[in-house]
Amino acid sequence: MRREETRMAEAPLRLVQFTKSFYFGGTEVQVVELLRGLPANYRVQVSVLDAVGPLMEPIRKMGITPEEFSLRGSLARPNTLAQVMRMARWLKQERVELVHVHDFYATVLAVPAAKLAGTKVIVGRLDLAHWHGKVRRALLRHLTLMADHVVGNAEAVRKMLVEEEGIPPEKVTVIHNGLDIVRFDQRRRAGLQAPLPDTHGAPVVVHVANMNHPVKRQEDLLRALASVRRAGHTLHAFLVGNGPRRPEMEKLAETLGVADRVHFLGHRGDVPAIYERANFGVLCSSAEGMSNAVMEGMAAGLPMVVTNVGGNPELVADGERGLVVPPLRPDALSEAFLQLLSDRERGRRMGARARAFVERELSLTRMVRRHDALYRRVARDE
What we know:
Elements: H1 3-9, E1 13-19, H2 26-37, E2 42-48, H3 56-61, E3 67-68, H4 78-93, E4 98-101, H5 104-117, E5 120-125, H6 134-146, E6 149-152, H7 155-163, E7 172-174, H8 181-190, E8 204-208, H9 218-230, E9 236-240, H10 246-256, E10 262-266, H11 271-276, E11 280-283, H12 292-299, E12 304-307, H13 312-316, E13 322-325, H14 330-342, H15 344-361, H16 364-380
Parallel strand pairs: 1-2, 1-4, 2-3, 4-5, 5-6, 6-7, 8-9, 8-11, 9-10, 11-12, 12-13
């Protein structure tokens, strides 16, 4: 009997994917893609801390009803222990073999619950823990050490886990994020869901990121645009994303004299079509894991200007698929913009290589296959 036939004949692997919620975000999008892509010989369930967010709709369309383990607003309450115990009972009752947990708050529940239930657990570490203070980072490190295995989405994450947190190297697997190229191209061709500002044919750079946290450094982009203007060049920026920092960024654009060239688009569901209308993309964060925004810009055939943090240089490779600049340096950012504005053909070549890299290395199929192999190794020693 062939290996594929053997696998189809065996009992389905009982897997739980556990994340905080299903609002739009890089982690949540990757969970949805993973759920879509896993082979039929899985019995997949989903658990969440809060069953909310627009990505709940595709989850339900897959016939999955998430099991909710609400923290009710805080970890520092007796309810946290109650939810750990409740989840342990649920894992036993459902005879779950493996839990894959994707974020900090869910990890706090899932790791101890899995240990109590005798269930294997994989912790996803998808950034450089830059969101957390010392206490949370120490707790996350302890829980990661308790897990049966760890998945990082970039070599920079693996390096941090091994060198800074002391996670055994053999316990860490790097699996890059995956992108469904076919669906992405369909969304590109579907066109815009709403009009874009008229730039009268001027070049456009696109920045896709939420405005919740200073780590995304939209202010560096605005300062770089001001430098480009002083150098006598015209460049418009489409900023896709929303959050509490938006009014501050809008005010800064006014102060810097670039409000007429900076367009705050808010949340958009047509990002691939927006990239289609740009000359290049940018992500100027001060810390990152493996950015879906960069991957999508590359898939659109754009050269990306990114900061030298996290997985950015793994994706872009300076001078090959885009340009890599130091973080927190608007001057370096503006210089990169000027290079692309002055040599459009070079930018097109880098964009073509970026698209080829995504097709070759970052396909959804590749990402799902690597998870499938890891799940079976951890859960069943296959």
